[in-house]
Amino acid sequence: MQLALFIIFGLLAVAGAINFLLQRHPINSALSLVVVMMSLAVLYWSLGAEFLAAAQVIVYSGAVMVLFVFVVMLLNAGEEERTHGSKAAYAVGFPGAAAIFCLLSFVFLSNGKSFGVTDLGNHLTHAANNIAEISQVLFRDLLLPFESTSILILVAILGAVVLARKEH
Amino acid sequence: MSAAVPISWYLVLAAILFSVGIASFLIKRNIITIFMSIELMLNAVNLTFVAFAHMWHQITGQIFVFFVMVVAAAEAAVGLAIIIAIYRTRQTLNVDQVNLLKN
Questions:
Q1: Do A64 and B94 touch (CB under 8 A)?
Q2: Chain B CB contacts of A40 below 8 Å
Q3: A56 with A40: CB under 8 angstroms?
Q4: What residues does each domain of chain B span?
Q5: What does the pLDDT look like over A26-67, one tens digit per residue?
Q6: Within the 48-87 window of chain B, which residues sit less than 8 Å (CB to CB) from chain A?
Q7: Is there a contact between B16 and A98 if contact means CB atoms under 8 Å apart?
Q8: Does A9 map to a domain?
């Protein structure tokens, strides 16, 4: 079950990411990014993070990507054209990304034994469920950081309004 | 009953997504798409956090992902406002033409 979920949605995420890379139009890239985020939500759920799976769907594919699509439509962004800068980017981008991928997967796979395997069902230590455990940590131990993120969001809203306002 | 998946497979999947994010960050010329590839990289890192949280039977990694999501949402709002401001002043979304510091 978990293996099937991982293979299906892992392949879906990789396909979405590759499509994101290859598409020229920003709307197509945004929609493939939504595919990646939805499959990541399923993978979070398969790792026992139900709250984060819901938050991923609501915050990322719901709010953030809708904001991106709105901006793409608002600015009427068309297909990107190739410039001389993109040749250098191709020459550096693909080998660099491939090198980073090779390094990361070498480290991960050579230490693969010590990471262990997933065991869905007993991943929690003592709490009743995932949301109970998260809320206990978030609202009791980490109350101050949690409240300061609300101030961060407030400042971000004000900053976005100030930046996007028409100057006159 | 169910075949267990090694944690390292999740990490390799995150590495794939992160590398694709890096590649598209470097290759794309549209500023909105570049911004979206940053989101892709953040998502890949979130996947490693959740996988490690599962591995250590600890909730801390998931808390960290929660804060990353909050910061990413705030960053997306401010960044898109900056993109709108850039489009208003320069009338372009191509990063090659936003070269005021270069000349």
A1: no
A2: 43, 46-47
A3: yes
A4: 7-93
A5: 999 999 999 999 999 999 998 888 899 999 999 999 899 999
A6: 50-51, 53-55, 57-60, 62-63, 65-67, 69-78, 80-85, 87
A7: no
A8: no
Q: How much is the pLDDT for B1?
A: 44
Q: Provide the 8-state DSSP code for A117.
A: B
Mutate to test the interface with B, among A115, A125, A150 (most CBs of B within 10 A): A115
CA A137 to CA B49: how far, in whole Å? Answer: 16
**Is A71–B84 a contact, with Cβ atoms under 8 angstroms apart?**
yes
Q: How many helices (H) and strands (E) does chain B have?
A: 3, 0
Chain B residues with CB-CB distance to A12 below 8 A: none
A150 lies in which domain range?
126-168
In sequence order, which residues have a C-beta less than 8 Å from that of residue A87 and are 6 or more positions away? none
Question: Does domain B7-93 sit in CATH 3.30.2290.10?
Answer: no
Residue A65 inside a domain? The answer is no
Place of tokens 């550096």: A92
In a domain? residue A152: yes
